[in-house]
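INFO  loader      accepted 1 record
INFO  loader      residues=145
INFO  predictor   begin
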Amino acid sequence: MTSKGDVEVRAIIKFCVGIEQTPTETCKMIQASSTTKKCCRSLVLRWHDMFRNGRESIEDDKRCGRPSVVKTGVKDKVRELIKEDRRRTVRKMSSELGVSLSTVHDCLKEDNMSKVIARWVPRLLKNDERERRLHCSREFVRRVE
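INFO  predictor   done
INFO  writer      dumping tokens
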């Protein structure tokens, strides 16, 4: 599936080919724009060449093989396994569910989970939350001392 940002960049490249701009000028224009997704020069060159050679579509071509999207059933099962035992390894979950290691990693990544001292915990996403936990930990240490 093509993202909206990719389609916008390709539309700009196609337009620039139509007005006979060079790939370098096109790349500079895309890099200077603050509203479009940034892309590398080699990508601009490749798409510029394809549009110059007659390509009309700005969408990705169909690809063969399975999609790389993880089914929600597997995600739910991984969540259940983590709830049962936060110390369970990725390898063990993979063998229990009959899926690849990368599939389990993808599920954990989508849930923002990371391994901290042999336990799966949600990643700290905000500095406020990190500060609060740090304060609580220091307070705990102070009380113990």
